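Here's what a typical entry looks like (UDP-N-acetylglucosamine transporter):
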Amino acid sequence: MKVTAAHGNNLKYLSLVTLTLQNAILGLSMRYGRTRPGDLFLSSTAVVMAELVKLATSLVLVYLEEGKHFGRLRAALHQTIVKQPLDTLKICVPSMLYIIQNNLLYVSASHLDAATYQVTYQLKILTTAVFAVLILRRRLLPTQWAALVLLVVGVASVQLAQTGEDSGTAATRQQSMPAGDGPEQNRLLGFSAALGACFLSGLAGIYFEKMLKGADISIWMRNIQLSLLSLPFGLLTCAVNDGAQLAARGFFFGYDAFVVYLVVLQAVGGLIVAVVVKYADNILKGFATSLAIIISCVASIYLFDFSLSLQFTVGAGLVIGSIFLYGYDPAAAKGAKSAVRPSAKALAEAEERLLAEKV
């Protein structure tokens, strides 16, 4: 019993570290990748490459699940994808939404500093909650509604703090940024892109959860379905947004070791999170997100000459508080019996949503 408890605690700590690093490092890496000196890679191609890496990784994992037998792997793919065309067609909707979402996140990272980006993207909690109420008819607790209000106030405070700096320290920060080929900074565009990504994240996550509710499909097979169907939409996005640049410079223009690292981080990091989330309760996930925001703020000060104001700090604090409040379950304090039932349901829902989230 002691060994099992110790093992469980180790898994929780591993989950905390993994979730924190994934949340913090990805935002910082995306920001650096879009503002560093040198040739700027096309973000639409990076999104496609991340889907390819995720598809390849998921195929390997399903191959291992099927006992390292290619015949079983082929049969499983045929049974899940080919023999169920209606379900496969339904997955086209979240696949398209995720491609647009990931492209919007690159736009946001190009125009918002990592700290602001990290705080603003927590609005996906609000959009997910709203779509859960509208689509799944889920009822929110009063504490969760209060948390959503705090979240909006906190994000608004952060954005207003940064807008107020635009006439002063923001100009200095813009001048101190690396003189590369990165896009001219447009805070409104970055914020709008982040809002769009949050909206799509909530819609796609809840749609995916509703569609796959009760389906007997492994987590890796679901990722294969999503990535496989995301590729056509990703290539179409490349052609529409960056067709002229692709024709003139090529698909891998601007790629180097860092871009490869960023693609792998975005693809494999999401898969790792989907595994460890089952060992993380709401409090632990709240800690992970809060630590990621703090790490992003501190790192941005040293890496991107980010100016941390009192208003930004208060806003970030409200966002962190709202995360804990939203995940707080008052019923858990009334006894083990009332806590056990929702925990199993919450676990399944969280796994479905985080599997689909992709960032």
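The chain is about 80% helix and 0% strand.

More examples are in the samples folder.
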